[in-house]
Amino acid sequence: MTTHEHTASRIVLPILCTFLFITCNIFEPREAEPPTQSGYQYQPRTFPANVIFNLQNAIREKDPVGYIACFSDSTRNQAPYVFVPSADAANLYGAVLRNWTYQQELSYFQNLISKTRQPQGFSFLSLTPKDSSGTTSRIYGFDYVLTFEHTDTAFTQTARGSLQFTLTETNSEWTISRWVDLKTEPELTWSSFKGRFSN
After folding, report:
1. Could you report the per-residue pLDDT of 16-62, keeping only the tens digit for each?
2. In angstroms, rounded to a whole number, what is the distance separating the alpha carbons of residues 99 and 198?
3. Where are the domains positioned within the chain?
4. pLDDT digits (tens, 9 = 90+) for 129-178
5. One-character DSSP codes across the chain
6. Which residues are 160's β-sheet partners?
7. What CATH architecture does domain 48-196 belong to?
């Protein structure tokens, strides 16, 4: 290497390092990346079918926030939420299920999750469509099987029956505003789960 080349490298290298330091900030700590999201990504509630889909996945994921988002909240200028229990459950848990509210819907689901078998208790909602009707509001009928592995050994882990969901739209968002539960099978209904795990 000539004297001229040696001098040039002594000038160029510090300039290059300074440039890299300024532009890349290689010695500064990096901004923390957001945590990787796990679980199910919910569908926008712009269609009634998406709400039903989200409900099933919230149950599978044991996600109370995703679950309660499927229901109508009168504090957000949505229709008041109404739940009509099956007759058998109303006889057993009448005081609890009478005048059931949006907040009770959330509390029941949180209580049920708190009694889930650990670490990965199975939870699943199977819905078989029966009928649908309506325009400004939509009424969906389903036969259902709800399975939830919990730690209450004196109570069933499976509910069966039929239900009707009425979905209404507010500000382009659909929610379940009315739920009618019907006993059609020998097993306990979903209403009994609500009564049992209400507190």
Report:
1. 444 434 344 433 433 333 333 335 689 999 999 999 999 999 999 99
2. 13
3. 48-196
4. 998 887 779 999 999 999 999 999 999 999 999 999 999 999 999 999 99
5. --HHHHHHHHHHHHHHHHHHHHHH-TTSPPPPPPPPP-SPPPPPTTSHHHHHHHHHHHHHHT-HHHHHTTB--GGGTPPPPEEE--HHHHHHHHHHHTT--HHHHHHHHHHHHHTBPTTT--EEEEEEEEEEE-SSEEEEEEEEEEEE-BS-TTS-SEEEEEEEEEEEEETTEEEEEEEEEE--SSSPPHHHHHHHT--
6. 145
7. Roll (3.10)
Q: Report the relative pairing of strands 123-133 and 82-84 from DSSP bridges.
A: unpaired
Find all residues with CB under 8 Å of 112, minimum gap 6, and list them: 148, 150, 193, 197
| Global pTM value | 0.78
The tokens for 144 are: 């259902």
